[in-house]
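Researcher: We're teaching a course module on how sequence relates to structure. For the next exercise, students receive a sequence and then see the predicted structure as tokens, so they can try to spot secondary structure elements on their own. Here is the exercise chain.
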Amino acid sequence: MAQAIFDMGWRIREITTQTELDSDKVAEAFFTNIKKYDYDLCFGTYIDHGYGVPSLGGVLDIPEKFGVSVSVKEHPVSKKEDWNRIKKKFPLDPLKHDRMPQALKALKAVCKELGATHPISPMSYVGIGFVQHLFRKVSDLTVDCYEDPDWVDEMCQVATDFSMDWIRAQYEAGANTHLTLNDSFGTELGGPGGGVLMAPSCQLLPATPGLHFKAWVDATHKYGKYPSGSWKQGC
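Model: And here is the predicted structure for the students to work with:
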């Protein structure tokens, strides 16, 4: 989604801060890109890994260079003792917290202009793939999977509930087609030294589709115009 911003000649820092998003620029970028490239499937607003993070006390790394996306510089849950304090902040309302209201404003504008002629997909993250952005850095989370899988599952459930609220808000703003989900975890976002690898058996609890994916599919059926869901799966 950052590509639409770069295509306008803008850097990410020109459209977002830790807590604010320039909805007018975002809408302009997505209008321009959708019309210019005539995509078969369109995203209608700018979304990155950091939605919800500042509201939980984390800090985003907003790049100055072209071709680099927003990442999380400081995660809200640096140790397990932080978790009780952080989970009490939920539910987070997408209509009120950090950049989500501005992202939805841009989405509404794009859907109003192009929704009748283009499929516009909502987007979010899945299970442990969302936990690594929202709560814990991936190297610590990988260890948690071995040492405290019940806690990881609890974090996945909280992230799932928040993600479904975010999905619902995007549909209510005008998104009109299948949901796009990303569940990548374990081999990316590992910092300068590369990704952190984990054994496949270790992913069974937090990443098993039966535990968390069904909730997203049900949410898509309930909130989406089309009765199906889809996701991109990384490994």
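Model: If you want an answer key for the exercise: Residues 149-172 form the longest helix (24 residues). The CA atoms of residues 78 and 140 lie 8 Å apart.
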